[in-house]
User: What shape does this take?
Amino acid sequence: MTPAAYLRTRRAAAGLTLDAAACALAPRIADRRVAYALLRLWETDGVVGEAGDVARLRTLYPFDVDVYRQLAEEPADRHPTICTGCGCTQNDACIDDVSTACHWVADDLCSACEDSATRSSVAWMYRAIVHSTDGEGATA
Ligand SMILES: [Zn+2]
Ligand SMILES: [Zn+2]
Assistant: This one.
């Protein structure tokens, strides 16, 4: 994962669009264009922000500056394990409703993301059943 992709993933996991993040970063409308440009720049693959500056984004969404620095400076085989679904690491795990931290269910997937993937596939099955029985009702 690139440092830029790490920021993108963490922002998306927090449910923030680039616009919303820019608004939060720049309360004054006059500064918002610059905020948006900066956020987009740091989320562009190949771009690495100065860690101290990037750390300010933690007021918007949670991420680990050490992870960011490692992704920017260390070779790939020394990168920390990062969930491709939400970007969590062992340094900032997902915490669920009952304060339980997530764990790894695969090399790059955490249990919180597996749960939400399972939930959405179950929702899909319920919808499919409703549609199927609708059809049955019509013919009966
Ligand atoms: Zn995850
Ligand atoms: Zn997680």
Observations:
- The pocket of zinc ion (ligand 1) is lined by residues 83, 85-86, 88, 94, 110, 112-113 (CB under 6 Å).
- The radius of gyration is 19 Å.
- The longest helix spans residues 111-139.
